[in-house]
Design a protein that fits this description.
alpha+beta, eight-stranded antiparallel β-sheet, eight-stranded mixed β-sheet, 38 strands, 35% strand
Length: 587
């Protein structure tokens, strides 16, 4: 915490801790819960005045408020406007909701946008023993006043305490070749070591050009400044100021956004599946198709040199009112070889590769060849490269990306990815005859179903149903959560390259309808991962967007493995290789 205040009232001790890390309402609320506390909840004028005093002391303009019972609250803003939350919603059954207002340093309140970012105060209340004779209670954190009664500091400055970030680094947007400066100041006793690191490589301490500054005899503020000369694309990402002494550690993040990239060389026809699934064709036509069957995602309809199938399974909504959603469960790839035969692999959940019934683990950094297919694994994805340089990217859970080479001929592809020819209007050619088009996404998707004796298909109804109409209570929280992340740093650096609106719309849709690990925020994480992937393809990669609070990669990896075959039941691993060995033979 960067500032604190204690209020004793009727035998209850109220601790308030100010955190100088700007967050949206949902993230601030979650951060307090992780500390075993709640977001600031003003209950009377006394608390209002004390918190205003804390904000003045810490030079903070405003902080978030917590949740309120709507029927109990009418507040007055600084300009005299009354906000009556008793009639906040038309829905009479809704009794509480985030109130998008903040308390200001002058003690008044302001209405704000729930997607904005502000500092926040967490609170905790405990019963205390008060000595009625002396009227004393054991509290170490009190305001220090001078002879005139004015606050001149905190008691924290008079005893040893861990560091707090007084002024953290700020986000910087720069061009390639610019010089960028980050500055960070921390206060502690004894003095802190203050460094600034790039999150991608926390072991690399960036050189400091700043010096420690002694402010008074009781507490020392240390300022560190780093200067990055002639920044490149590799310098973009998340940085952190870390202050440490023997009593603890504090940190504050900042982003460096590099605006430079010429993405023309990266342009390749790309088809993408994620979430419900939400599909983008090679010609950038977007639609939703919640099928539950095996479908032809894309194939060469002129020479049959490749086929890519996708198995979609239900992933939520089936046991609830409203439509059922689905998601990709696996992707199967076949490529024709020179003797007329074909080579195939199936990419399953959990980064499992199925070759002829043998299910193989593929770990990070591995690369191998099966027939004329090259298979490799990065941290989050499996890539399969076909002989004609078509690549299939699979995240091991629900997202697939198919990319054609830049020189791939027009009017050769068919399937759910559409007919590649730079004309999105003819992407909905149906399977039989290849001359009939439809404007209905579900009719189009149904035509590319590939039912088998073991997996018969149920046709998706012609009418598309928005799950938010079936679950209106989820629409507003989903809108807030999705907007809070997609329209803030670091994702804003990609907005000029990839329109975030479709991802926001589909993020809301999945938040409303999907039951698939929603307690782990999987609908949101799938949307952010899809947008980050689209940005990388579009030449504006977003580095280090994950954090401990937002879709942590370790948690996503565990989910991915849990959704696939249990790894400890798999008999073989993929072998490390240079792509020259056949994995099946070697095992």
């Amino acid at each position: 915490a960067d500032g604190s205040i204690v209020l004793i009232s009727d035998g209850i001790r109220h601790d308030y801790y100010l955190y100088k890390e700007a967050k949206g309402f949902t993230s601030a609320n979650r951060a307090c819960e992780k500390l075993g506390m709640t977001l600031l909840l003003i209950e009377d004028e006394v608390q209002n005045a004390r918190i205003a005093m804390l904000l003045l002391q810490e030079e903070v303009d405003r902080v978030w408020l917590g949740k309120f019972w709507l029927e109990d609250w009418v507040i007055t803003l600084h300009d005299g406007t009354r906000l009556d939350f008793r009639n906040f919603e038309d829905d009479p059954g809704r009794t509480s909701a985030p109130i998008f207002a903040t308390i200001r340093a002058d003690g008044f309140w302001d209405a704000v946008n729930g997607r904005d970012r502000y500092f926040f105060v967490c609170q905790r209340s405990v019963d205390v023993e008060i000595d009625r004779d002396s009227n004393e209670v054991d509290i170490r954190k009190l305001d220090i006043k001078d002879d005139d009664g004015d606050i001149r500091g905190s008691i924290e400055e008079s005893y040893d305490h861990p560091p707090t970030i007084v002024k953290g680094p700020v986000n910087v947007t720069a061009q390639v070749g610019d010089t960028v400066t980050f500055k960070c100041t921390a206060s502690s006793k004894p003095p802190s070591t203050v460094i600034i690191v790039k999150i991608d490589d926390e072991n690399q301490e960036l050189p400091s050009i700043g010096d420690a500054t002694q402010l008074n005899d009781e507490s020392q503020r240390v300022t560190t400044i780093i200067e990055l000369e002639s920044v490149t694309r590799d310098d973009a990402g998340k940085y952190s100021c870390i202050a440490q002494n023997e009593l603890g550690e504090a940190s504050a993040p900042a982003w460096l956004i590099i605006e430079d990239l010429d993405s023309l060389a990266l342009e390749r026809p790309t088809c993408m599946f994620w979430g419900d699934p939400h599909i983008t064709t090679y010609d950038d036509r977007m639609y939703n198709f919640p099928g539950v069957c095996t479908y032809i995602l894309s194939m060469d309809c002129t020479s049959s040199n490749f086929w890519i199938y996708g198995l979609m399974k239900e992933c939520g909504g089936g046991n609830n009112a409203g439509p059922s959603l689905s998601a990709l469960d696996s992707v199967t790839i076949y490529a024709r070889v020179s003797d007329g035969n074909q080579t195939g692999v199936e990419l399953q959940r959990g980064w499992v590769v199925n070759i002829g019934g043998a299910k193989l683990r593929i770990s990070e950094g591995m690369s191998a060849r099966h027939g004329n297919l090259i298979i490799r694994r990065t941290s989050e994805h499996v890539f399969v490269t076909l002989p004609n340089m078509i690549t299939v990217q699979w995240d091991g859970l629900q997202m697939a990306v198919i990319r054609l080479p830049a020189e791939f001929g027009h009017d050769r592809t068919c399937g759910l990815c559409g007919r590649y020819n730079n004309d999105p209007s003819d992407d909905f050619y149906m399977r039989y005859g290849h001359t009939d088009q439809t404007s209905n996404a579900n009719v189009f998707g149904n035509s590319w179903a590939f039912p088998t004796h073991f997996r018969p298909c149920e046709m998706v109804p012609d009418e598309e149903i928005n799950p938010c109409h079936e679950h209106p209570d989820r629409d507003s929280p989903g809108a807030i959560l999705c907007h809070e992340h997609l329209y803030t740093v670091p994702f804003t650096q990609c907005h000029n390259n990839v329109d975030p609106q479709p991802y926001y719309d589909n993020c809301r849709r999945d938040f409303c309808g999907s039951e698939w690990r929603r307690d782990q925020n999987l609908p949101l994480c799938n949307a952010l991962s899809a947008y980050a992937t689209a940005c990388e393809i579009g030449g504006r990669p977003i580095s280090s967007w994950r954090s401990e609070d937002l879709c942590p990669i370790d948690e996503i990896k565990e989910i991915t493995k849990e959704e696939g075959c249990p790894w400890d039941e798999l008999e073989f691993d993929f072998e490390d290789g240079d792509g020259e060995r056949d994995v099946v033979d070697s095992n």
